[in-house]
Amino acid sequence: MTDTDFMKLAIEEAKKSVDAGGAPIGAVLVKGDKVFETGWSLVWPKKDPSAHGETECMRKACHKLQAINLTGYTLYSTLESCSLCLGCAGWCNLSKIVFGAYKEDTPDNPYELSDYHAEEHAKRFKNLEVVGGILREECKSLMSNIKNWSPVE
Ligand SMILES: [Zn+2]
Question: Hey, which bits of 15-102 come out as E strands?
């Protein structure tokens, strides 16, 4: 399985979120060549501002492991990790994040810091690598069903 293969799985998770009335953010957590956990944005369905696709995935994985340590795991996400998700990744010692669309691909997103770039900010963490742009166009097109960062019909 390649980064592209795992990103395709994250896109499938994102579509589940959209079907539930959420944002097109999906995530899969991988160790070695196997998917360990999945997650998708439940912010609107749960009315929980911290229930991002990535945080849901990391929460479920840590619960499954009964440990707050994701060293050796890679998280694939359809959108550039926000500052909340990057912080969560740091808290659980996640090793790597691979994302699809960049925050610039969602220009109506009012919630992210203006000078924020996950790949740059990740360097502040000891052991976290972040790589963006995998299947960027496919992930970017997923974001077309949101406006002002809210679902539209
Ligand atoms: Zn986030």
Answer: 26-31, 34-40, 73-79, 96-101
